[in-house]
Amino acid sequence: MSPKSPPGVVSIDGSWKRAEGAAEPEAVDATPSIRRNRIEPHRDIDKLTGFEIGDDFTPFDQKNDVFSRANWDENVRSDKALEFWAAYIMPNARARKADGYSQRDYALRNAAWHFTKAFATLKTGSEGRHEGFNDTFTLHGPGWPEKWDMGDPAETSKDIKKVARLFGADDVGICDYDPRWVYATKFNRLDQSSRPPDVDDSLTHVIVTITAMDLDLTATVPSALAATATGMGYTMDAVTLMSLAQYIRNLGYNAHASMNDTALNIPLAVQAGLGEYGRHGLLITKDFGPRVRIGKIFTDMPLAPDQPTSFGVTEFCNMCQACAAGCPPKAIPFDKPKNDPPNFSSFSTIRKWTTDAEKCFKFWTAQNTECSICIRVCPYNRSFKSRWDKLWRWLAGTRLRRLALWLDRFREGGRRNAAGWWLGKSE
After folding, report:
1. Which of 238, 56, 273 is nearest to 140 (CA)?
2. Contact of 392 with 382, CB cutoff 8 Å
3. DSSP H or E segment with residue 210
4. Closest by Cα among 113, 120, 25 to 69
5. What is the H or E stretch that residue 298 is in?
6. 3-state secondary structure 157-204
7. Left if phi > 0, otherwise alpha if psi is -120 to 50, otherwise beta: which for 251?
8. 248, 240 Cβ separation under 8 angstroms
9. pLDDT digit string (tens) for the chain, length 427 residues
10. Among 112, 273, 284, 379, which residue carries the largest CB count within 10 Å?
11. Gyration radius of the chain's alpha carbons
């Protein structure tokens, strides 16, 4: 029998709002949707990013990501999944005596998520929108009716990056609009419907922003306390993206601010020169490793795209298996990149390392909070402010990468006590 949602409970993005006793939603067809106009699977930039895309490529359908499936697919949806979503509303948090899971830990986590969750659901009742997770942000003020002549696109890009950092971005890059990474359809978790994305091919560029998550909080993974870093990452993302989009609109251009909605973040971030793809399926940046949240703005402002970057991540990940070894549910592959995904929550037409989203999410729900152990144990999870960390990064990008991996064993990369974080201790 299908589990019922607790009364009045909404998910982390406000998407689950079915009252107790309400009719169960009908099963959703898991067959990926295909856009009416077939998208060319290959682009010249793939030579720089290293993306290996099959000729039968079709865009991903958001209803098949594991978080959407938790709303309709009985293979993912469970009592624990419903409890997981419910725990972001404080009375439903399952506080316990384990380190990092006290009422105070959940209180801080949920407070960090509160702004983003409240902002995302402002139009849920009136328009069925869950902005930042299923829909782009729309709470904009009126822009200028005419486009300001920005002049040289390269200078405009410098201006945009300066403003993005002023509004809170830790890093920012620009790439061309690439329809391959836009969802075939986006998924409304409230009524189980699919609809077209908020953006289209009239937009020319994507501004991709990076927000670094707190290093000390991440060191307490797994814990409810550690998820505070994720919540604050999304909060800062929302502030940065909405402010930057309004600036662009004030200059007379279109701008659609987006977090996890509308399109896939990681391939756009790689194309924008912000990092490389890692074994754990995450973006690895040069200054923060994988400890980042990604945001994006789709726009028609004339900009100069950045070039993809390479600092040895692929070669290092080919050798390193720290994330795979550290993953409790064994959701991260030990073997080489391949086209065969573990389930339909991932592309089957791209050769890459693919995390088993079903195993990963099941572990999240068992913990009753997010997990980012793969981030904590990644050798690139450093501040890169010290000379030692910078030297390590250089070694990892050379033929001395095995030495870099060996040296990483002497770093204090183990889990730190969450109680110690509250006391201001490093351990």
Report:
1. 238
2. yes
3. strand 205-212
4. 25
5. strand 292-299
6. HHHHHHHHHHCCCCEEEEEECCHHHECCCEEECCCCEEECCCCCCCCC
7. alpha
8. no
9. 333 333 333 444 444 444 344 444 444 444 434 343 568 999 999 999 999 999 999 999 999 999 999 999 999 999 999 999 999 999 999 899 999 999 999 999 999 999 999 999 999 888 889 999 999 999 999 999 999 999 999 999 999 999 999 999 999 999 999 999 999 999 988 888 999 998 988 999 999 999 999 999 999 999 999 999 999 999 999 999 999 999 999 999 999 999 999 999 999 999 999 999 999 999 999 999 999 999 999 999 999 999 999 999 999 999 999 999 999 999 999 999 999 999 999 998 999 999 999 999 999 999 999 999 999 999 999 999 999 999 999 999 999 999 999 999 988 778 999 999 999 865 4
10. 284
11. 21
H-only helix segments in 351-400: 357-367, 373-377, 387-396
Determine the length of the chain. Answer: 427
85 CB-side CA count, 13 A: 25
For the chain, give me the number of helices (H) and strands (E)? 16, 10
Phi and psi for 64 in degrees, rounded to 5? -95, 0
Distance of CA 416 to the CA centre of its chain: 24
> Which residues, at least 6 apart from 250, have a Cβ–Cβ distance to it below 8 Å?
143, 144
What's the rounded Cα separation, in Å, for the pair 264 and 93?
A: 30
CB 181 within 8 A of CB 298: no
**Residue 412 to residue 405: CA distance in whole angstroms:** 14
- Looking up tokens 């991932």 gives 346
